[in-house]
Specification:
The radius of gyration is 13 Å and the shape is globular. 0% of the residues lie in helices and 50% in strands. The chain starts with a strand and ends with a strand. 32% of the residues are buried. With 114 residues, it is mostly beta strands. The strands form two sheets. A six-stranded mixed beta sheet has the order 2-10-9-4-5-6, with no helix packed on it. The protein is built from no helices and ten strands.
Length: 114
């Protein structure tokens, strides 16, 4: 069983930065492909970025060049560095396993003001 706890969300002005963290319990973390997802009000949850066990990354077009996903397997942690934020990035951000969504965190709110 894996439990995921996100942190780092908040309110930021357009153009600002935030760094999200997701700490996992359980040794299975290092074997999981991990993703950051987000869900804006009235929209479906979408995959923002994912990272393999070895560190290969993939990004949604909407965040490419602005967001960076990374992981530290020794700390059981996955990060999402978000730069050049804009109001369209406002959402609840979740970390979770990919492609099977067996594990989810509780989410952290990111609000970007214009």
């Amino acid at each position: 069983q894996v439990q995921l706890v996100e942190s780092g969300g908040g309110l930021v002005q357009a153009g600002g930065t935030l760094r999200l963290s997701c700490v996992a319990s359980g040794s299975i973390f290092r074997f999981l492909v991990m993703g950051w997802y987000r869900q804006a009000p009235g929209k479906q949850r979408e995959l923002v970025a994912r990272i393999t066990v070895s560190g290969s990354t993939n990004y949604a077009d909407s965040v490419k060049g602005r967001f960076t996903i990374s992981r530290d397997n020794a700390k059981n942690t996955v990060y999402l560095q978000m730069n050049s934020l804009n109001p369209d990035d406002t959402a609840v951000y979740y970390c979770g396993s990919w492609p099977r969504n067996d594990y989810w965190g509780q989410g952290t709110q990111v609000t970007v003001s214009s």
